[in-house]
Amino acid sequence: MLRLLVPIDGSDRSKQSIDWIKERYTPSEVSVTLLLVREDWDDIRCKEQCALAKEEALPILQESAHTLSDFSVATEVRFGRAGEEILRFAEETEIDIIVMTKSTKSGWIQMIGSVTNHVVKYAKCVVVIVPEMQTK
């Protein structure tokens, strides 16, 4: 069974990675971890604030997990710089594939975001970049 990691930030764009997984895999082929990284860790001073910050992230993760209801899904909240935490988590849990959605820029400049760029550059596993689908 492949272990997939999907960084989620609550945006519709980040949720497109979930749709990509559902189109390509069956629940028996993969287990999915949804990871939300809070970069406001400098503001957290005690265990209570940490617990509250994790609790605030749960609805975002639960909504995304619900769309994968037939799949084996775990959720995780981490604190720190998003790119570094995604890579750290992937290595610690022996993730096979990180699935992220790139931001589609219009015009002549097209680039992926800084977090995605960091993950692609330093990942020790396969990274799939899903093109952002324009919503109407």
List the helices and strands and how they pair.
Layout: E1 2-7, H1 12-24, E2 30-38, H2 47-66, E3 72-79, H3 82-92, E4 97-101, H4 114-122, E5 126-130
Parallel strand pairs: 1-2, 1-4, 2-3, 4-5
Helix pairs in contact: 3-4
Q: What helical percentage do the residues reach?
A: 25-40%
CATH C-level: Alpha Beta
Quaternary structure state of the chains depicted:
single chain
CATH-scheme architecture? 3-Layer(aba) Sandwich
Count helical runs: 4
- Span between N and C termini? 35 Å
> H/E series, N to C?
EHEHEHEHE
Structural class: alpha/beta
Gyration radius, rounded? 15 Å
Average pLDDT, all residues: 86
InterPro entries: Rossmann-like_a/b/a_fold, Universal_stress_UspA, UspA
Family: Belongs to the universal stress protein A family.
Organism: Flavonifractor hominis
Domain UspA: 3-131
Describe the structure.
Pfam families: Usp. By secondary structure, the protein is of the alpha/beta class. The chain has a single domain, classed as 3-Layer(aba) Sandwich (Rossmann fold), CATH 3.40.50. It contains four helices and five strands, in the order βαβαβαβαβ. The chain has helices at 12-24, 47-66, 82-92, 114-122, and strands at residues 2-7, 30-38, 72-79, 97-101, 126-130. Strands 3-2-1-4-5 form a five-stranded parallel sheet. β4, α4 and β5 (126-130) form a beta-alpha-beta unit.
How do you describe this structure in short?
Helix content is 39%, strand content 24%.
List keywords for this structure.
alpha/beta, Rossmann fold, 5 strands, Universal_stress_UspA, UspA, Rossmann-like_a/b/a_fold
